[in-house]
Amino acid sequence: MNTLTVGERRLELDKDGYLVDLNDWSTEVANALATAENLVLTAAHWEILELLRGFYAEFQLSLATRPLIKYAALKLGPDKGNSLHLNQLFNGTPAKLAAKLAGLPRPTNCL
């Protein structure tokens, strides 16, 4: 099992780098996960992460790429809810990487 150290805390990660305990998530954890992915989180990233966390809180589901694009377009508008924007933010794997950084489970139908 992999671990992530954030301050004094050692958090367990699964084999793909997702949090084992979703309750371990915090903004500091998200930033540490992003750093491990060579990514610096901006306001645009946080907007998507908060959107995903809200969706998960309501439906207990991590969105795959196409539903993520549609949901982002619905909630944030077409400028932010499109594949080009999301792929640029999340290094070409928006559903998987965004879910990981948001402290959510890996989307079940993502390769």
Key terms:
111 residues, 5 helices, single chain, two-stranded antiparallel sheet, globular
Short description:
The protein is mainly alpha-helical and 111 residues long. The protein is 49% helix and 9% strand.
Describe the structure.
This protein is mostly helical. 49% of the residues lie in helices and 9% in strands. Strands 1-2 form a two-stranded antiparallel ribbon. A hairpin with a 2-residue loop joins strand 1 and strand 2. The longest helix has 17 residues, at 43-59. The protein is globular.
The H-and-E topology, N to C, reads as EEHHHHH
Strand order of the largest sheet: 1-2
Q: Main sheet?
A: 2 strands, antiparallel
Overall structural class, as computed from helix and strand content, comes to mainly alpha
Mean pLDDT: 94
Fold topology:
Blueprint (H helix, E strand, L loop, with lengths): L1 E5 L2 E5 L13 H10 L6 H17 L5 H12 L6 H7 L4 H8 L10
Antiparallel strand pairs: 1-2
